[in-house]
Structure formats: structure tokens, C-alpha cells
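Dig into what follows:
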Amino acid sequence: MSFTTRIARQLGLSRVAIDTPLSQEQRTPLLPSTAIRPLDAPPARPQPESATAPRAALPARPVEAGDAAAAAVSPPETPSRTAPTGAVLLDTMRVDRPDLAPLIATLFTRDGTMPEDLARLSGQLSRLDLSGVPPTPDLPSAPVVLLAQSLAAACDGDARLALDALDSLAALDAEAELIAAWQAGANRTPAGSPLLSASASPSAALLGSPGRLTDVGRRRRQDGLRNNRLGWGPMLIEHAAADELAARQAAWRTSSALGGTPAGMDVLMAVTARPVDPARRRDFALLLKASEGAPRGLDHHGDPTALLRDPATLRTLTGEAVFCAAARMAGDVAAAEPHRWALAAVRNDLHETGPGTRFAALDARLMKMGRWIDRAAPRSALRPRNPLIGKSPFRALRHGVQGVERGPAAARHRPARERALTEAASALRDGLLRVSAGRSSGPAAVPAHLLRAAVLSHCLEEASPSFERVGFDADARKAIGERLARLMLSEAAAADPPVLSALARRLDELPDLKALAGLRLDAAALADWVADARSQGASGTPPARPTDLANTADAGNADATSAANAAPASSASLLLTASAALARAEDEASGRDTRVKAVDRETLRTALKDIVANIEGSSRLRLTGGGIAGVGLRQITASISAVASALFVRGRVDARVQGARHAVFEIAMPPYDMEIVLGTQRQTTGQVGLGVSVGPDLGAFKVGGNVDALLYGQDRAELQGLSLRLPRVGRPVPELREEFSRLVDRLIDHGAGGAAHHPGDPPLLRQLLQEFPELTVNQIGQAGDARRRHGLGADVTASLGKWRLKATASAGGYVETQRDVTRRYGDASGAMRVERRIDGHASRAGVALRASLGASQTVAGSVGDAGKADLTMGALQAGLGAERILGGVFERREAVYEDGRLHPLSFVETEYQDLDAFAEQVKPQLGDWVAAGADRQRLEQLVTDIQRHASPNHSAAARVVVGTEMRLRDDAYRSAIALCERQPGGLPAEVAALEREIESQWRDSAAMRPYSMRSYERNMAQRTHGLDLVVQLGSVTAAEASHIDARVDVPAR
């Protein structure tokens, strides 16, 4: 471990900052995990006997100082799911065999609705057999509530039409009708297709084929024939036919409403005449979604069979999607293939492709990635860019990828490093025996190359978890001495036990063997030995050490000389192999140098594909590049105060407003997918503070102290853009990596300026949807972050000036608290949507040394303002700062919805910046984790290792995922909310009650199950170039990444 690394680790420095006259740079110190280098690890902490504590959940809010004990013993109360809430929908869902009259009265409020129709509808729904619907825990009547909601939405609150639609729905064979309609529309069946609406008029269909009528049509037809007086019968039958058609269309709209909700498809399959085959159910759901989004000008009234028979349908995106889904349901994959992109588009909530549509906006964002690549290319200093316009996140690759490609230290990198060290030691041992095999060390010397070879042989053959070690005990030295004796003797002499044991005893008494007791055999020692062997092999001098030994090592010289002459090249190659293996071992310990000197399409491709090939779960890399602009009063108010007054005390106002605009690129591998984010972030920063300088002005020399108080600071950021996701669950990870690698190629080659991009090509988004049918394309909705800051700093300043030049030096420190830290991310569209929310607080402290030389005295910022464009034209500045995180807790909630359903890997995670606070909080919870299936010994060892191998860039977290019962209830609640939004007025009171119930589930620890304990390693690097002369202008590039350093997962049950 280097001196700087040791200092950074001992002081707990999480960030260092370097100021130069032209830039400011911040970065995380390089702190290799001590879990990878066992010799550098601190001694294990003594662990007290753990007692089993009462069950207590992880806090559902950030734990403030002093609250840890309360949080550990005060679990949140489980909300009741039986008490009435006053919300009709929710209360009805909770009751088995409820009275549906209040529900029907709430949903069917159309003017002119007859009470008897409401009563008939309530009775008919109550008599339905919905036992085939999978039950929802604690919500036995959820299916009938969702069915009633969908009928109300499809029939616009008309109870009479809902009765007819329910009858039509009960007679619906959706799969057969859709396949028949697709075949008819594709001219694959005779003209006499038995489709209801194939006839020219509704009455002709009804009169010509009475056997095909539903109960609605048959009842209306019989009424018309009974009342056939004065010629009214045909007219009544015509009206009956119209009612039949309206009921049929309402039934299809009901199907679309139900099928478009997370829990509605099972209900739909339970009420139709013949359920759709499960293998075709996904295509059926997409067909319903596409037909609902079809242009109203096609006059289909929600009936997808009408779309399939209309030739104009294929001229629209949704029409192609309907055609594709129907062809897949019919088993004609070849006919569906050309339209696969359209079905994928509808799955991602894209229904139109024209200018100004969401499709066009997403395609333009994808094309912009190509321009980002061109902007990141090296450029002459005489051709500056506007940092607010010519932005590119890929310039940040000059900082490297910050270890995002790395994985758990002990599980991945330590074994890989051990394998590399073993390979290096084995090659070095063989090389040592060959490179100097022909040289005699003389009768009074222990050959150092043979001693080292004996040491390496002993370590390689000894069963030990780690090759590295410090010191060899007496038994080990004795074994090494015997090995050395065998190497020094001829085969004949070594086969004589008395000769061998006599030489071994004499070797044991030599200083060279005794010195092994204090030998640190690690990667650095191996590197030195390799260097010695290579230099001595080249120079021809023997690696000997003088001793008192006599008359040894002569007998085997002839054989050794012959071996050396036989393979001189082999020894050199062995040493090269050892050097390469040591380099790999160092990469495993400290990480590879991933900085990209010059960014172009090929270097970017190489960098991204390396990440795709090596990234592990829960890792994320974020690259940003752009500009900042603002205005600040700190320097000018300080200068005015100094000129206007020669008082002992001088004041200043630190008011600052800044705006930033950055291009953002993210690549990540969450538990549920692998994803890329392309976006633009707009950031605003404002702060108000006061400062005071105290000290005498002695003319040419000034000395004093500064105190600065940050009264209020606020940072806000908003993100716009898109995300591309490929699902991860249920598929081999190598297959996912290969597919994602192909996606990276398409983005680079087919974007703006790409080699495969040609005028007249289909939109890039269409190409991606066609080639990657499982691709999720999300438009980002509400996303951004915010925080409030307060701080206090102090420093000591001295300046010396003459001839209008002043040299200033300062040293000081600061402490800052951040509260109301929030980060939000939500997708507005897409098949897999993510809603992420992080809330918490943090505190940090830092110290800084600064110096300046110029025409004016600059005031050092003693309140943690590194990274801002605080460079001044009035002086040349330089500085060095360091920062330490004092503590902080963040709660992260991540809800993932795949095709509307809550994903089983949705989670709540509580992350601690203070690792000791993490251990204190989770130890009382271990009983619950063991009950969930985790191994207690592994959990305790993880907590111990997290504390033992603590690093300033580490944090620790406990993650729980949603339980099965919670997921089912959540799907039912959100289905009801989605159907409420289709109602006139939206039923806001009902929606509010359902949303409160969803929120209470997320805060109910009993609804969750333990999933994973882990520690994260977070690294960052940021560079700011700019000027500050009251008005600030600068450019910023930053790379930040996180990956798991250690983890224990609860086995799935």
C-alpha cells in the first residue's frame, strides 16, 4: 500500500480537489479494497456475542442522529386491510360476496339510467362465476370490481348497454374471431366468411343467421317479431341489429379496458366464452392495446376485427401492430415478421410516427448520440466550443470508467488475483532455475536464485487460502532448507539421506534462511525478484550471497549448465509470463487504466463493449459533459469592503446563482435489466451566505482569519431523455451481454455520422425495434434531484503585496450538511417502466490549502465550493483540498413495472454512509434474514468484513424486495386506478384511497422479504475549466460509477 493510499484511508478522505490556474479537478482517491490484498487488511475487530433481538424492520425513513435505537425497537404497525375506508371501490374489493349496488350506483351515473337496469346489472355481476381468476390476497372481490369498472368505462356509464355488453362478452370467442378476421382481411378465406359484421347491414346479419346471435340479439329479435304490427317489425329488428352491434363493440372495448390493466387479463379470460390460449395471450393483449390506440378515423369503435378487415389499417403504425399480432395468433410468423417493429412500438406506448410525435422525439434523441461522439473527438485549442451548446458526455471518458466494470472484491477479484500471483510465482520459479542454472555461486555462498526458487516451491505446494504471507515459521524454514539442499546437490547426492540432511542442517543455521522469518512475500517482492532475474540473466553475474558454507553446489553444475544451454529462450519467456501475470494481479487489485485518451467511434465502441462484457449486477456508470454559467458576488463584495474600509473587521456577501446544461449518458445493469440512458440535464444552483474577515491591514502585509456561513443553498436538476432496456430475468447473462453488445454497435454505426447511416434509411428507432423485439424504449418523465445545503467554514489568510501584485495563502476547513436530499426518476412510457425515489440526508467536512498570485487578493472559499467555476482573472490560483463524509442515510425505493405488473425485484433499500451505523442497525435484524433463508454465519461475516475493510468510498445497504402478496394487491389497486381514469371525472376520491393503500404497502415491513445485504464502492472524477470575473462561464466533464464490493443474497424460495 502506497503512502498516499495509506494516508487517504487513515484520514477517511472520500474526495480530493486540486485547483490550478486553468481548472479544478475533484476525484475519489484510488483506494484498492483490502479484501483483495489480505496483507494490507487491518486486524479483525473483536465481535461481541450477538443476542437475538425482537423483530424490527429497517427504517422506512432516513434515521437521524439519536434515532437508531428507537428505529431498532419500534417497527411500523401493519396497516389493517379490513376496516372500512369510505371508498366504495376499495371497500367492495375487501368483502367476499359484497352487495354491488353501491358500486354500480357509483360507476353508472349516466343521465336517464333506469333503477331497474342498475339492479339487473348488479344482480348479473353478483351471479357471475369468477372462481377461475387467481385470488388476490385480502381482496376477494377485486375481479368483479374491475369488471364493473371496465364495463362502465366501455359503456360510458350506460347500465343498459353494459347489460348487453356483458351478454356479448360471455359469447365472445376472441381468438377464433380475430384469426378469422385476419384471414379474411388477408384474402385467405372464401367470401362467405361467417363473420357477423361481414354483411352490408346489421339487420341482414341478424335476419340471415339467427343462430349466430348472442343473447342480446336473440332477445331483441324476438321482441321485434312479437311486436310486428303495422309493419313495425322490420324497423324494430333493424334497431335490434344496431343494438347488437353496439353491444359487440362495447364488449370489445371492455376487453381492451380489462386487458390493458395489470390484473384484468385473468378476469377477461374468466368471463369470455373461450379463453385465449396462454401461449397467444401476450399477442392478444398487444392486439387489444394497438386497436385501442388506432386512429378514430378508421371508424372501428374499439372492434379489432373491423381493423383487420380494413385495407387502410396497414397504412398506420397501430394497424401494422394489429396485423402482426393477429398473424402471430394465427401461427403465420412469416407474415408477421415485417411488422414486428410496429408491435414492439405499441408495446412501448408508441402509436404514431409522424412529426411531433413521441416516436419522432425518441428517434431524434437516438440520432443525437452520433453527434455526441463527433463532438468528443480531439479538437484544436484554436477552435473552442460553446460549453453550453457543443456538449458531449463522452469527453468524460478521459477520466476512465471509474471501476464500473469491477465486481465484488472477495468473490471476484481476490480469487482472480490469487490465480495471477500463483501463475507468476510458478513461472518465476521455473525461470529462476533456468536463467542461472549454469552458474556456480562458489563454495562459500548460498545461491540466491535457488533459495528464492525453494521459497516459491514451498508456497506453491502448501495448502493456503492466500499465496502472500509475512514471515515463515521454523517448520516452514526447515522445509525450505530441505528443498534448497535438493536443488544444490546432484541427483545422486540428493538421494543419499545422510548427505541431504547434513546439508539441510547447515543451511538452517545460515542468516539467509533465518532472514525468512521476517520476509514479506507479496506482489511487490515477486516483482523485485523478476526484475533481479531479468537483469542478472542479461548481465551474466550470479545472484549469490556470501556465506560460511563450504564445499557445496559443485556436483550439480554440469547438469545445470546443460539445462541452461538447452533452453536459453525458455527462461526469458517464463520471466515475461511472470511479469504479465503480476500486471494482471495488480489490475485485479487496483483496477485497469480505462482512460480514453482520444475519443472516436472505435475507442468508444471498445470502451462500451468492455463494460458490457464485465459489468455486474447493480453497477452503474454516469458520464456527463456540458457547461455552467452564473454570476457571483463573493469576490466583488470582498474587494469593495477592502477598498472602502481599513477597519479591523471587513464583511462580504456570498450570493451566487448558476445554471448548467449537461449531456448525460448512463450504462447500468440493475437486477432486472441492462440499460442505457441518453439525456439532457438542466441544473440550477443558488446560495446565500455571509463572510467576515478579521485582522489588521499592515500595508504591504495582511494577516487575519475568515469565517464564512452558508445560510442557505439549494441545488436542483431536471433530466429529459430516453432509456433503452433489455430484460435480464429468465435468460442467461452471456446471451444478454451478446445482445446488448449488438445494440451498442447499432447505436454507434447507425446514429448521426455513423458508417452504416445513409439518407433514406428507416428511422433508427424503427430499426432497433425490428431487430430487438424485447427492447424497451422509455421516454423519461419526471426525473431529477434536489438538495438543501447549510455550512460553516473558517480559514487563516496571509498576503504580501508590492507594486500592485499580491501573493495570498490560506488554510482552512469547513463542515456542510445536506438535508432534504431527493432524487427522482420516472418513465413516462415504455413496456418496462421504472419509478425510483431516493430520500435522505448527509454531512461532510473538508480542509483546503490555497495560494494565489495576482493584482488582487482573492478570498478562498472555505465552504465546500469545489467544482464551481470560481477561477478568477484577477489572480493565478492553486489549491489542494480534501473532504470526508461524516455520515448520512438514504432510503431508495425502486418500483419496476413490466407490461404493467409490479416486478418481483422491485425493492426498498436503506443505505448508510457510516458503516458502523449500518452494522449497529442491521445486527438486530439478522434473525429475520435467517428466517427468510439466509445463512447466519455468512451474514455475520459480511457485516464484519464490511467494517474491517471499510473505505471512505464505501457505503453499505440492506435491500428488501416486494412479497408475492403485495405484488398481487398492487396490481389490483393500480388496475382499479387505471380504470378510474377512464371514468368521467376520474373518481378522484376513489383514486386517492387506492393510492394511500399502495403507499401503505410500501411502508409495511411485513409486505417485504429480505433480499440482499451489500456494500457499494463509489468513485468519481470531475474537471471544471472556466473563468470567473463576477460572471462565470465554464465547462464540466464528470464520470461517476458504483458497483457492489461485497454482498450476501437470500436464496430464492
Notes: The radius of gyration is 37 Å.
